[in-house]
Amino acid sequence: MTGAVRACANYFRVHPGYHRLLTALMEKYRRSGRPAGWVTLSDASTAECEAARALFGRPFEPPLRFRADQFEEALQQTRFRGVSLKAVLEDYFGTELKTRREVRAGLEDRFAAVLDRAMEGRGETTARWLEDLRAGRGSGYTLLRREATRDPGQTGTGLMGACAALDRLERGDGRPVRLAVLSAGATSDPHALDSGTLGGKLFLHLLAYRSGLDYPASAEKRDALYYQNGILCDSISSLVTQVGLILETEGGEHPGYALFRQRREPVTLSLASLSALTGVRSPCGRAFLVENEMVFAQLCDRADHFCAPLLCTSGQPSVAALRLLDLLTASGTALFYSGDFDGKGLSIAAQLWRRCPDRLMPWHMGPEDYEKCRSEVALSAASRALLQNCAGTPLEPAARAVEAGGTAGYQELLLPWLEEELLKKP
Q: Against a cut of 0.70, is the pTM above it?
């Protein structure tokens, strides 16, 4: 019968008037598993009406309408007697004909199979995550389910790599490990957990689950999530610059950094350098922070006379900058932060305040300071929207002033007041 099915499908292929009729019949099968209901083409062409007439033996005109089961009955009165309409449709469209329920069941089976393979021999955290995924919840469920329906093999490989990496991380000795090294040890491929790969995305979902956090929405939050879990992703280019801090190791103050401090010279620290430190503190119990590199460099022209250390976050704080702030907070250092008066600058200040509310205070960031450094640069809509991030923080009065003023204020215009305070003895 296979030859008759192929001959029937070929007949329909060389008579394009049947195409939309067969498409409608295909949809009937997918809905209910049989040719049920009516097929209607309200805008049927002459060729389509002629195709229906040739099969049914009676004239048609728009709207073309017939019962779906009558199509197969009419087909049995032709030279293709004995063929199954379902088999003809599968040959014509080149696909296995399944109902929507059968398709959904197949997708469920694929998803379950991917999870079953990943479950074997897992550690406590990964096992809990996988069970949550099986129950239709947990970080990464939507991503994993979508990819499992497309390519279960590749999805399984990515999931296995993510789980193996976390198991390996939790079995480790607690020392920081670089992402590429962890990836190579878990999968033999140092790039398998790169953030752009499926395995890397699933690994980030797993880390977020482990930490009780949302999936990182930015590169900064991603790198912070890695670091929080003891993973060094970019330990060289994540930088922060400072002058005057005491940087400590197990044996006391680091001798190399001590020379920079004694000479009052700025030093740039990478995340890798900070990871080797046991503590950071200020000689006077205070430290000042500025957002802008040029402001930092200008102020450092008087570093010989500073009465307190100075740090530069260089805009949005890097993981290295956040690590340094955490070490200073742990040592009890009082922090004073100064940035630009626009949506980005004030929201960064608010973010840092929320990170260490008991230790960080705005520094020359009040409404009166805004009046001193106002420019004629109008705020963009995006900048205005960022001002809302200051609600409920000490930056809120400045944010209201900036919103009312409608223009940005820049840190460079506050240099005399910033320098005066850095040179002032407590």
A: no
